[in-house]
C-alpha cells in the first residue's frame, strides 16, 4: 500500500522483529510463525528480516529471549531469604510462560544457551550461592529443579485441558479398571474433593511439587550435604 506524504515507516530492528513474532505466535500459534508470514505482518519483504535474524532457529531463540526477559528479577537482599526468592522467581517464570501458550514448546526445543537463558539460570544460581550453598549442592539443586525453573514441570502425560483426545483403536487391549485399584482410589478421592474439576489442577500440582523440592533443598543445605558422601543429617 503506498504511503502518503510525510508518513514514515518505523524502521526494522531485531527487537521489533522478535516482538512481532511473539505477537503472531500469541494470536495464531507457533506453527503460524514463518519468515513470510512475519514479513507480511510487518509490511516488509521476507529478505528484510534476514538483516536482523539469521534463520528460523535464530528467530525462535530470540522469541524465547523476549519471554524470558519478562520474568521478574528478585530484589536486593534476596539471598538472605533464598527460599522465598527462588519460589517467587520460578512462579514468576510460570506466570510469564503461561501467558504465551507456545513458549513451553519453544523452550523445550531450544538447544542453544543464549545470554537470556544463561542469565535466568545465573540469577537462580546466585540466589543459592549468595545464601551460602556450596557450589556442589547448587549444581545438583539446579539439576533437581530442571524445567521447573522455566515455570513448567515434566508430567507423565501431557493433556490439553478442554480438548479430549480422539478415540483411537487399541492394539494392546482395553484396560480393565478393576486391575488398577490404587489409581481408581486416587481418582475417586480427587473427584470427591473437587467435583467440579475437569482434571488435575496444574497450578496446585506445580506449587505442591515446588514446595516439596524447596523443603528438601533446605534440609540438604542445613545438613552441609556433599555429593562425595551423600550424607543427610537432620
UniProtKB/TrEMBL annotation:
Q: Which GO terms describe its biological process?
A: negative regulation of DNA-templated transcription
InterPro entries per record: Homeodomain-like_sf (IPR009057), HTH-type_TetR-like_transc_reg (IPR050109), HTH_TetR (IPR001647), Repressor_TetR_C (IPR004111), Tet_transcr_reg_TetR-rel_C_sf (IPR036271)
The record's section on PROSITE patterns has: HTH_TETR_2
Give the domain of life. Bacteria
Q: Where is this region: Disordered?
A: 160-179
Residue ranges annotated for the HTH tetR-type domain, each copy included? 11-71
Q: Name one Pfam family in it.
A: TetR_C_1
GO-annotated molecular function: DNA-binding transcription factor activity; transcription cis-regulatory region binding
**Feature: DNA-binding region:** 34-53
Arranged from A to Z, the UniProt key words for this protein are: DNA-binding, Transcription, Transcription regulation
The protein, known as: TetR family transcriptional regulator
Protein source organism:
Humibacillus xanthopallidus
Which lineage is the organism of this entry classified under, starting from the top rank? Bacteria, Bacillati, Actinomycetota, Actinomycetes, Micrococcales
Amino acid at each position: 500500500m503506498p504511503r502518503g506524504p510525510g508518513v514514515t515507516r518505523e524502521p526494522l530492528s531485531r527487537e521489533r522483529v522478535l516482538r512481532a513474532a511473539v505477537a503472531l505466535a500469541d494470536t495464531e500459534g507457533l506453527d503460524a510463525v514463518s519468515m513470510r508470514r512475519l514479513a507480511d505482518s510487518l509490511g516488509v519483504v521476507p529478505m528484510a528480516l534476514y538483516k536482523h535474524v539469521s534463520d528460523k532457529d535464530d528467530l525462535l531463540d530470540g522469541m524465547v529471549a523476549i519471554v524470558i526477559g519478562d520474568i521478574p528479577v528478585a530484589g536486593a537482599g534476596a539471598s538472605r531469604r533464598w527460599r522465598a526468592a527462588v519460589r517467587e522467581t520460578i512462579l514468576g517464570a510460570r506466570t510469564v510462560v503461561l501467558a504465551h501458550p507456545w513458549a513451553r514448546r519453544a523452550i523445550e526445543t531450544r538447544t542453544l544457551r543464549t545470554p537470556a537463558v544463561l542469565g535466568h539460570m545465573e540469577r537462580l544460581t546466585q540466589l543459592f550461592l549468595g545464601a551460602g550453598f556450596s557450589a556442589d549442592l547448587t549444581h545438583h539443586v539446579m539439576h533437581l529443579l530442571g524445567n521447573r525453573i522455566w515455570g513448567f514441570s515434566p508430567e507423565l502425560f501431557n493433556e490439553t485441558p478442554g480438548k479430549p483426545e480422539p478415540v483411537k483403536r487399541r492394539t494392546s487391549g482395553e484396560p480393565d479398571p478393576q486391575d488398577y485399584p490404587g489409581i481408581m482410589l486416587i481418582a475417586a478421592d480427587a473427584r470427591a474433593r473437587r467435583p467440579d474439576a475437569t482434571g488435575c489442577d496444574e497450578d496446585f500440582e506445580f506449587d505442591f511439587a515446588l514446595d516439596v523440592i524447596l523443603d528438601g533443598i533446605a534440609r540438604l543445605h542445613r545438613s552441609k550435604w556433599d555429593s562425595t558422601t551423600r550424607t543427610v543429617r537432620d
